[in-house]
């Protein structure tokens, strides 16, 4: 009697990529990647997309790998801006998905305009104070020079 075992390998399903966390400057961002089906073990690898040609490179040196398909980008800076790709693979095949990271700068245009208006308002008040002080001194000088009006008989 001859006995054989047939093993069916299923490639990973198309993965889903998403981000969670704080996209502001100095924030912590988590990148997630999950393939819902496929023959184990499924391997996950995050890479950075460099340039317009789609070349893949390493993640930033500060990144930390979590559980399968999870990477943390701590203390975000502007250099973390860009596209990231998750590669999933097993013996039967592979797949990928991308996420875009855009770090938000805390100083919005409204904050900058508010600071500029406050500065200009302060300069105007200082100018007004100097002008009023000079005018008062002129008025006092004029009053000191004018002889009193006396009625003589």
Can you put this structure into words, describing what you see?
- Helix content is 24%, strand content 31%.
- The chain is of the alpha+beta class.
- The strands form 2 sheets. It has a 4-stranded antiparallel β-sheet, with no helix packed on it. Strands 4-3-7-8 form a 4-stranded antiparallel β-sheet, with no helix packed on it.
- The longest helix is centred in the C-terminal third of the chain and has 37 residues, at 109-145.
- It is rod-shaped, with a radius of gyration of 35 Å.
- The relative contact order is 0.18.
Task: For this entry, give a set of tags.
single chain; about 150 residues; alpha+beta; four-stranded antiparallel beta sheet; 8 strands; rod-shaped
Quick take:
24% of the residues lie in helices and 31% in strands. The protein has 153 residues and is an alpha+beta fold. The mean pLDDT is 87.
């Amino acid at each position: 009697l001859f006995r054989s075992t047939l093993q069916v390998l299923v490639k990973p399903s198309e993965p889903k990529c998403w981000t969670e966390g704080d996209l502001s400057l100095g924030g912590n961002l988590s990148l997630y990647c999950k393939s819902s089906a496929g023959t184990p073990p499924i391997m996950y690898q995050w890479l950075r997309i460099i340039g317009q040609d789609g070349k893949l490179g390493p993640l930033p040196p500060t990144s930390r790998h979590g559980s399968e398909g999870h990477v943390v980008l701590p203390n975000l800076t502007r250099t973390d801006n860009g596209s990231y790709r998750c590669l999933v693979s097993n013996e039967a095949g592979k797949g990928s998905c991308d996420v875009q990271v855009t770090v938000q700068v805390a100083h919005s245009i409204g904050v900058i305009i508010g600071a500029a208006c406050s500065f200009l308002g302060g300069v105007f008040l200082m100018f007004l104070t100097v002008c009023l002080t000079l005018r008062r001194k002129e008025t006092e000088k004029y009053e000191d020079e004018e002889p009193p009006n006396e009625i003589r008989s």
